[in-house]
Fold this protein.
Amino acid sequence: MVTVAVLALQGAFLEHEKVLTKLGVDHFEIRNSEDLKRPFDALIIPGGESTVMGKLLRELNLLEDLKKRIAEGLPAFGTCAGMIVLAKEVEGGVPALPAMDIKVLRNAYGRQLGSFYANEDFADLGKVPMTFIRAPCIESVSGNAEVLAVVDGRIVAARDGKLLAVAFHPEITDSTAIHEYFLRTVAGLNY
Ligand code: GLN
């Protein structure tokens, strides 16, 4: 059985859990270092506020452990603030779990007028619904990282090995396509 851990320090973690429940995937929340003792096959880092999440990851002593596991091949999926947390380079912020060869720009669409909806192509999935909330964008990818989606000329999704980052919130739409893509295609898990 496949088990997914959802980082639940702040932000939209509950919505990811609902998608996993819908897909019938076993999951639990990571709130402190005790939770890291449980076995899991993949990690989801939700949207929220990347600066707060980075601070809590450090204060709760989760940072080094997660960094190590990701470096050793733990599949991880970051959405919005979670994408910022996974990026090696952050404009307008500080890298938290530097893991993906992507350079991100925080609040790429402005702070006020930051929310919009799009239905655009994603990798080989065709059109998928994308909800952006004070979203970052990816300015560039390097190394093995590849671009998976572009909206209005901006990169909004990328993959780097077993790591996936999207600038939008797939967990608040009815579609489970992006979560399935992460679990099956990126993480290589059979659930
Ligand atoms: N603007 C937030 C940040 O920089 C991200 C917003 C979100 O996750 N919806 O962390």
In short: The chain has a mean pLDDT of 96.
